[in-house]
Structures are given as C-alpha cells and as structure tokens.
Design a protein that fits this description.
mainly alpha, 1% strand, Terpenoid_cyclase/PrenylTrfase
C-alpha cells in the first residue's frame, strides 16, 4: 500500500485536483511526512538534505514545519552570493548551492531574494564549458577536489543547469536563458552521462537509480531534466533512456541501486526490491 504522500503525487501526476482539506489530510496521514517533520535539524548539511527531501513532497510548502525549515536554511546558509554550508565563502560549493535553489523553487520560493542571489551567482560564475577561467580568490574550491579546473566539475555544472531550469519554470523569466542554453548543450554533448573522450560514465554514481537526489549526480535526475527540457526524443538522450529502461524489472518497476546515508537525509523507499517513489518519478518522466 502506497504512502498517502505518494498517493497525492500519483494523483497530481495523473491530473487529479485536490482541495486544501484533501491535501492536508493526505500529508497528515503520511508516515513519510511524519518522519520528515519529526525534528528540525540544526547543522547546515542536515538542513540541506532535509530541505531537498521535503521539497519532493507535493504541497509540502503548506506545512508549518516546511516554512520553519526554510527560515532556518536562510538563517544559517544564506549569503549575499548564494547558499554556503558555512554561511561564508569557506564552504561554498556550486553543487550544494544549486541543489538548494532547486529545492526552494519546488517549494514556491523562487522569488525570494536569497534564491535570486544564488541564481545570479550561477549565471555570473558557473562555467558551462571547458577552458573557462574563473577567478574567485575568497572561495576554496580546490579544497574539495576542484570545481573549476580547465574542465569544470560535471556534477556542479549539471546541478547548476538544473537550478537555472527550475528557476525559469517558477518565474517564467528569460534573464538566464543564455547560460541555461549553454549548459544544456554541454550536457547534451556528453549524452547526459558519458565522457567525451571514451564511451564510459563520467562519474562513479552517475548511472545510479536513486531518489531523492544527493551530491552524487544520478540517472534519475538527468532523466527528469531531459523531460523538463523536452529532450527525451533527442538522439543524445537515447543512451540514458536505454540505461534506465534496462533497469526495469519484470513487473515494470525500478529499485534504487544506491542508498545514501547522511544526517537529515530521509530514504523514501524502504523496500530494497522495489522503489515506489523512484518508479513513479521515472514513469512520469518517460511519458512523452
């Protein structure tokens, strides 16, 4: 039997309409929502994961908990240039900044100044191609393996492109279209998950079936982006779709191939054999 929050998502994906009372009833009866709202994290990283997870629950912005969580994120992570795990330049990472932007856009907060500042940082500083020199002396990107070397970190680039797309979806703005197009083309050139130099995955976890997202870029995220940008029929998306379809079991469902564990992160699907949330996300994305 599906969790009531998943029932709500499936209904919305199928075009059903719900009253506010019906929405609140399903959220209040959800065991997953109860787990997500059982405590309000204090540490920046835990706040980040909890925000990302709860943003995947339809209409979760209606919960008092979610609004308190957003306030806490703004209090501890927001800076004039975006979202940082340390509240300053020391632990600012493009991938985390982007994931927080996308989560807040899903929660209807795209017009907040904090989100707009983070999006502006992406537009101004995130390389969307190789060989683009970035000089930001107060930031410590090399400490984390190097986000902006001659070849920019693909994870940070892709998640930043997702954030620009999510921001555009919520605001209908065109200000960042040039950067969004450039980043989208870069992802397409890589057939979403492959190196240009040889026919193999860019990173260890990029072919994982996993949901909700983590700092590891995975196939489900890439598929959702392909859907949002109407690229499912593009020839360079064929390998990604084939990869995902091959993971489908005989019952037409998927299971998570990677389980992330971290403070604040909540696993949506407890069944190791079949993942109901992940299956719904993939099926909805594959509708053309």
């Amino acid at each position: 039997m599906a969790d009531t929050a998943l029932e709500l998502k499936i209904g919305i994906d199928n075009g059903e309409k719900y009253s506010d009372n019906q929405i609140i009833d399903k959220l209040q009866k959800s065991e997953l929502v109860a787990e997500l709202t059982s405590n309000l994290p204090e540490k920046p990283l835990a706040l980040t994961w909890r925000l990302i997870c709860i943003s995947e629950i339809p209409f979760s912005y209606k919960l008092d908990y979610t609004q308190k969580l957003i306030c806490k994120v703004y209090e501890k992570l927001s800076t004039p240039f975006g979202f940082s795990l340390s509240g300053d330049e020391k632990m600012f990472l493009p991938c985390y900044n982007a994931m927080i932007v996308s989560a807040l856009c899903r929660l209807g907060r795209a017009n907040d100044q904090q989100v707009q500042s983070a999006v502006e940082w992406i537009n101004t500083n995130q390389p969307m191609q190789k060989g683009q020199k970035v000089e930001l002396p107060n930031f410590n990107f090399d400490k984390y393996g190097g986000c902006f070397k001659n070849t920019p970190c693909y994870i940070g680039l892709a998640k930043s492109v997702f954030a620009l797309r999510d921001f555009k979806e919520q605001t209908n703005g065109t200000k960042y279209d040039k950067q969004l197009k450039k980043g989208t083309n870069y992802i397409l050139q890589h057939k979403f998950f492959k190196r240009l130099s040889k026919d193999e995955p860019i990173t260890k976890h990029i072919t994982d079936i996993s949901f909700p997202e983590t700092y590891h870029l995975n196939a489900v995220e890439l598929l959702r982006f392909a859907k949002k940008t109407n690229l499912l029929l593009h020839e360079n998306a064929a390998d990604l779709i084939d990869l995902i379809n091959k993971r489908q079991n005989k019952h037409g469902k998927w299971k998570n191939s990677f389980t992330y564990k971290a403070d604040g992160y909540i696993i949506f699907d407890k069944d190791p054999k079949e993942s109901q949330w992940t299956t719904q996300i993939i099926k909805q994305a594959l509708k053309v």
